[in-house]
Design brief:
This protein is α/β, with parallel strands linked by helices and 258 residues long. It has two domains: 156 residues, NADH:ubiquinone oxidoreductase-like, 20kDa subunit (Rossmann fold); 74 residues, no CATH class. It contains ten helices and seven strands. It has a five-stranded parallel sheet, with helices on both faces. A two-stranded antiparallel ribbon has the order 1-2. A hairpin with a 2-residue loop joins strand 1 and strand 2. The protein is globular, with a radius of gyration of 20 Å. The structure holds iron/sulfur cluster (3 copies).
């Protein structure tokens, strides 16, 4: 996609306000940005709402004149800290996009190892790269808004951007995935012998995984008042091992297990 020259769109002759937005990736798989680009059905509508001025995955032009910065990925290097702080200074609104940005995501799994040099050697062998402990975006700079998920759900991002553009308040579900799962009339996976973190995970994905017969791994982080200890107890009673329970709870970094 090529950025159009800044044009003023009008409705009934009244100029429409289109915030300038930018997307930036840090340590990530870029899957969240890809979700946005993949959104063919509604991409044109989305682009009529905002003016995208920086999006490496989608366009060649670059501009620092943005109001809303979407940050994908976690922070693992000093140069990333410097870059993130510069973006924060430039943006009016900074949005953490996806689990890596919100709480470290799958990247934070390496923080479980005490010896990061050993981890680097195992992963990169004779081709070492500069990478340290993983931090969430909010551990480095103030974050105005978090959009959860691995990957994010594009419909949710569009709704949030629409609300931002219209100056409406942003509502993110606080209730658990189980509520959506029940509304979707799924058979509870626990009854089929499959672990699922739906009771303690923030909804908003429309119970994406249980709809396909897979248990929730908690990629959207904790729902309000999530009782992790009680969840562990229930999973134990259902016969799941300590290892299975911790593997699931630790996967995306949203739950504090230690
Ligand atoms: S949250 Fe998931 S999909 Fe998004 S960048 Fe991180 S690993 Fe990729
Ligand atoms: S399958 Fe998971 S999300 Fe659905 S009701 Fe059971 S525990 Fe909740
Ligand atoms: S069901 Fe759980 S793991 Fe799957 S998308 Fe929703 S929150 Fe993420």
């Amino acid at each position: 996609m090529r950025a159009k020259k800044a044009d003023t769109k009008t409705y009934l002759g009244i100029p429409l306000y289109r915030p300038k937005v930018a997307f930036f990736e840090f340590s990530s798989c870029e899957g969240c940005q890809l979700q946005m680009v993949n959104n063919e059905n509604t991409l044109l509508d989305f682009l009529s709402l905002v003016e995208v001025v920086n999006f490496r995955e989608a366009m060649t032009e670059r501009s620092d004149a943005y109001e809303i910065a979407f940050i994908e990925g976690s922070i693992t290097r000093d140069d990333e800290v410097k870059r993130l702080k510069a973006i924060r200074k430039n943006a009016k609104v900074l949005v953490a996009l996806g689990s890596c940005a919100c709480f470290g995501g799958v990247n934070q799994l390496k923080n479980r190892f005490k010896n990061l040099e050993w981890v680097k050697k195992q992963v990169y062998g004779k081709h070492p790269i500069d990478t340290g402990a993983v931090r969430a975006v909010g551990d480095v700079v103030p974050v105005n808004l978090m959009i959860y998920g691995c990957p994010i759900k594009k419909e949710e991002v569009e709704k949030i951007v629409l609300d931002l553009a219209l100056g409406k308040s942003i509502v993110v579900p606080q209730y658990p995935v189980c509520m959506e799962c029940k509304a979707n009339e799924n058979i509870c996976l626990f009854d089929l012998g499959e672990p699922c973190l739906g009771p303690i995970t923030r909804a908003g994905c429309n119970s994406w995984c249980p709809n396909s017969g897979a248990g929730c791994w908690g990629c959207r982080g904790p729902a309000e008042d999530a009782n992790v200890e009680y969840m562990k107890k229930i999973m134990k009673e259902k016969g799941f091992s300590e290892k299975t329970i911790l593997e699931r709870l630790d996967c995306f970094g949203g739950f504090k297990t230690k």
